[in-house]
């Protein structure tokens, strides 16, 4: 169904000082889909994710969000509709958890304070941190901070959520709590693109796994196919390495 | 009349001198604040063109590189040759411009110590650059700046006494009047003056420290 298309990335290219990092990437995402982006370090996963909301401006290619092209001119409005979860959380460190989840609802979406507050409490509840509303980021564990940053993104009613290695900065014992929140979101029908090395998440939550290397998409397919029957030697080699170390 | 009677009699003059010093201080810090903030924001977020950036660098270097006493002379004698300027006006201008150079540095390093991810997260959520600077970066930079700014405050209090050399009748000059009119007792008079400067300094520092405590947030401890 074409009208279910949320995100359409067409032939995106990006080079840094002549070094081509993205060499023509295309993929699309329908409503409710979760796609997991994997690939070796330096393959361009973060760059691709950041190109989607123009945190990094692509050199070429087109990106459409719900049919609307992402451009320099509409970028603030587009970004408000795309949630972005960073590896190192980037919570606003001078604001309480509640204000972190509230501020962009008010300053960007123009919501009234009481409506924003109510929504913030709902989202904090959803990520299991209702009791931390008054805390400051520095008072939380990494896993809690990441869950707040997910709540912060959710409170904006994003049409799609982008995750860039949301658990990579966490101690191993803290990744579970974040992965569980993400799994729950996937189940509830959130539309997401997730860069991660958490293969258990990819296996269980992904509708499709996209394997990137050297700025290209090497292969994409359902988790069943990618994990058991991937056609590309390189995909299998990468998944084996991950399986051993992860 | 011994020196204590003189001091008692002339104490109002010392207080008046202190008042002049305080007005000078407030004026130069205000000018320096506005200027320093404008320079900092232009350097960090303004046009990268060298026609914009170079004059700022040159200004900053000159005002931080030339002794204030020379600047006071240049401003007073230089400007008064062209337009009618009072010694007080010249002192405010010279010292305000110099404080602007210093404050721009304080603000710049405070803004720069806010991690880049803060701006990125704000922009990623759809905040405009202006809104992100105002709502996210500035409140954090302010917390970083307040300590160094307190130092600037303290050193400017002391430097107001230099306005004496171009004839501003501030605290130090009032003291000098008392000394010349009573021929002597330099130490006693200056001890009282020192005490007044000290009290002003401590009061200001305490207020700023209280402000710092009020802004305190976990994660911003020094
Ligand atoms: N701002 C930049 N300036 C110059 N080169 C960059 C920049 N950002 C990324 N690169 C380069 O682009 C390439 C791809 O980087 P990217 O961060 O997208 O990879 P990645 O797949 O996310 O890797 P990782 O798994 O380590 O996060 C790397 O070679 C990197 O050095
Ligand atoms: Mg990356």
TrEMBL record, chain A:
It is found in: Cell inner membrane. Transmembrane segments: none annotated. GO terms for cellular component: plasma membrane. Keywords: Amino-acid transport, ATP-binding, Cell membrane, Membrane, Nucleotide-binding, Transport. Residues 7-239 form the ABC transporter domain. It is a peripheral membrane protein. It comes from the Bacteria. Gene3D superfamilies: P-loop containing nucleotide triphosphate hydrolases. Pfam families: ABC_tran (PF00005). One of its GO terms (molecular function) is ATP hydrolysis activity. InterPro entries: AAA+_ATPase (IPR003593), ABC_ATPase_HisP-typ (IPR030679), ABC_transporter-like_ATP-bd (IPR003439), ABC_transporter-like_CS (IPR017871), MetN_ABC_transporter-like (IPR050086), P-loop_NTPase (IPR027417). Belongs to the ABC transporter superfamily. This is Polar amino acid transport system ATP-binding protein. The lineage of its organism: Bacteria, Pseudomonadati, Pseudomonadota, Gammaproteobacteria, Oceanospirillales.
TrEMBL record, chain B:
GO terms for molecular function: transmembrane transporter activity. Keywords: Amino-acid transport, Cell membrane, Membrane, Transmembrane, Transmembrane helix, Transport. Its main location: membrane. Pfam families: BPD_transp_1. The chain crosses the membrane at residues 20-41, 62-79, 177-200. It comes from Vreelandella salicampi. It comes from the Bacteria. NCBIfam families: HEQRo_perm_3TM. PANTHER family: L-CYSTINE TRANSPORT SYSTEM PERMEASE PROTEIN TCYL, MEMBRANE COMPONENT OF AMINO ACID ABC TRANSPORTER. PROSITE patterns: ABC_TM1. This is Amino acid ABC transporter permease. GO terms for biological process: amino acid transport. One of its GO terms (cellular component) is ATP-binding cassette (ABC) transporter complex. Belongs to the binding-protein-dependent transport system permease family. HisMQ subfamily. Residues 14-208 form the ABC transmembrane type-1 domain. It is found in: Cell inner membrane; Cell membrane. It is a multi-pass membrane protein.
């Amino acid at each position: 169904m074409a009208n279910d298309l949320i995100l359409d990335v067409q032939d995106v290219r990006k080079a840094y000082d002549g070094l081509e990092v993205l060499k023509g990437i295309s993929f699309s995402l329908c409503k409710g889909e979760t796609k997991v982006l994997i690939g070796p370090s330096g393959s361009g996963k973060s760059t691709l994710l950041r190109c989607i909301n123009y945190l990094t401006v692509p050199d070429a290619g087109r990106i459409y969000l719900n049919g609307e092209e992402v451009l320099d001119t509409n970028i603030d409005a587009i970004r408000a509709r795309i949630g972005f979860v960073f590896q190192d959380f980037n919570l606003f460190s001078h604001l309480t958890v509640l204000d972190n989840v509230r501020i962009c609802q008010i300053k960007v979406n123009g919501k009234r304070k009481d409506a924003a507050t109510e929504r913030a409490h709902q989202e904090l509840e959803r990520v299991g941190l209702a009791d931390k509303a008054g805390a400051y980021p520095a008072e939380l564990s990494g896993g809690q901070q990441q869950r707040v940053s997910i709540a912060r993104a959710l409170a904006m009613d994003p049409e799609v959520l982008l995750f860039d290695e949301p658990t990579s900065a966490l101690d191993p014992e803290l990744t579970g709590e974040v992965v569980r929140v993400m799994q729950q979101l996937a189940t509830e029908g959130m539309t997401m693109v997730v860069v991660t090395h958490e293969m258990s998440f990819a296996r269980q939550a992904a509708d499709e796994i996209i394997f990137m290397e050297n700025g290209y998409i090497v292969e994409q397919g359902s988790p069943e196919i990618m994990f058991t029957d991937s056609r590309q030697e390189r995909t299998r080699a990468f998944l084996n390495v991950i399986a051993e170390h992860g | 009349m011994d020196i204590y009677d003189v001091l008692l009699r002339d104490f109002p003059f010392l207080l008046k001198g202190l008042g002049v010093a305080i007005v000078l201080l407030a004026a130069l810090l205000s000018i320096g604040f506005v200027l320093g903030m404008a320079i900092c924001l232009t350097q960090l977020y303004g046009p990268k063109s060298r026609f914009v950036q170079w004059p700022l660098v040159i200004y900053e270097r000159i005002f931080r590189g030339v002794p204030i006493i020379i600047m006071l002379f240049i401003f007073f004698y230089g400007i008064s040759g062209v337009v009618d300027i009072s010694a007080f006006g010249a002192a405010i201008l010279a010292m305000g411009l110099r404080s602007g150079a210093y404050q721009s540095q304080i603000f710049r390093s405070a803004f720069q110590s806010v991690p880049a991810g803060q701006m990125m997260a704000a922009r990623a959520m759809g905040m405009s650059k202006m809104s992100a600077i105002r709502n996210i970066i500035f409140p954090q930079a302010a917390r970083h700046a307040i300590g160094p700014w307190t130092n600037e405050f303290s050193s400017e209090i002391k430097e107001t006494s230099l306005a004496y050399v171009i004839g501003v009748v501030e605290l130090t000059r009032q003291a000098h009047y008392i000394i010349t009119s009573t021929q002597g007792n330099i130490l006693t008079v200056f001890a009282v003056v020192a005490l007044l400067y000290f009290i002003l300094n401590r009061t200001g520092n305490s207020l700023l420290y209280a402000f710092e405590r009020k802004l305190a947030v976990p994660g911003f401890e020094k």
